[in-house]
Amino acid sequence: xxxxxxxxxxxxxxxxxxxxxxxxxxxxxxxxxxxxxxxxxxxxxxxxxxxxxxxxxxxxxxxxxxxxxxxxxxxxxxxxxxxxxxxxxxxxxxxxxxxxxxxxxxxxxxxxxxxxxxxxxxxxxxxxxxxxxxxxxxxxxxxxxxxxxxxxxxxx
Length: 156
Known about the structure:
Layout: E1 11-13, H1 14-21, H2 25-33, E2 40-41, E3 47-50, H3 53-65, H4 70-77, H5 88-120, H6 130-133, H7 147-151
Antiparallel strand pairs: 1-3, 2-3
Helix pairs in contact: 3-4, 4-5
């Protein structure tokens, strides 16, 4: 299904892209709808993706499976052009941003792990011990949920 014979610019149908990347066709439609990927249309109005889009789609899929929000993935991939074959420099810029996103996520997971152990490590499993971390339920005014964990506040 090649409409263009330039290396990396060959156009692939959505079925080929789905099979090659493992991304469902519906996911590809969604990624395109939110601007993470780009396709062109054939004369029969079928989506066609340049071959160089395969790497981008694969990174989106992997990041998504790891729980990275699509907005963060999109931000990390901003340096990578969609309309031309990305250069090595484009991927290096994206790699730097990916590393920043992953490091932030890693720190958040480690902090959650530390806080979980501090919370359940006492063994009481009751609200009584929470007076140590949240005196007089001061965080209740900020809303429901795990306010301290979600905000990134450190445990005193």
